[in-house]
Amino acid sequence: MRDPIRAVLFDFDGTLADSFDAIIASVNHTRTAFGFEELSIDEIRAQVGWGLRQLMEVVVPSVNPEEAMAIYRDHHKTVMGTHTRLLPGVRTTVETLHKQGKKLAICSNKLVRFTQELIRVLEIAPFFDAVLGPDDVNNRAKPDPAMVLEAMKRLNVRPSETIYVGDMNVDIDTCRAAGIPVWVVPSGLQTAETLSKYRPDRILESMNELVPMLRLLAVAP
């Protein structure tokens, strides 16, 4: 039987890599730049995942979000490389999928140049056919489906040939809007119990399950 899945799309933060320390540092740098006290890890954790503009509107209220985003990004580019690490099983997984001939892409709410730099530093860039951010689709961050739809267009695949792997309910909402299956892994900011409330198509225990699960799909009657 022909393998029905030709492409796998990934979120970045919390799915492929742990970059939370860099996000914490840049959020608190931005807050102090505008005279606010630093936030706790849990306070920041509760706001991450829905794009930088929304994050800035919450963590530096009453400040021009464009100014806040500029300060955040200037700081973030100085710390992201040293404060980001691949999550367990990611390198082996994406390398295996690449060798199997699957098309791989990243759809992240980070600026695309940041994600491109990080996957270069983390030495996984050669395995990906496309990397997208909101700036590729008129700043339409997830859960808007524009990024996912553009990724499928670039990879020349149909929704029925695509699976998305993420770690948050924003990923689930995005894929529902795009009309593609979504698998989640509780390696980011939300637990499996929390993610189950949003009814993803599958919850993986870890990234190490992805390749075996896709293999089962390929042989299913």
UniProtKB/TrEMBL annotation:
Belongs to the HAD-like hydrolase superfamily. CbbY/CbbZ/Gph/YieH family. It catalyses: 2-phosphoglycolate + H2O = glycolate + phosphate. Pfam families: HAD_2. This is phosphoglycolate phosphatase. Pathway: Organic acid metabolism; glycolate biosynthesis; glycolate from 2-phosphoglycolate: step 1/1. It comes from Tuwongella immobilis. Its EC number is 3.1.3.18. Keywords: Hydrolase. InterPro entries: HAD-like_hydrolase_sf, HAD-like_sf, HAD-SF_hydro_IA, HAD-SF_hydro_IIIA, HAD_2, HAD_sf, PGP-like_dom2. GO terms for cellular component: cytosol. One of its GO terms (biological process) is DNA repair. One of its GO terms (molecular function) is phosphoglycolate phosphatase activity.
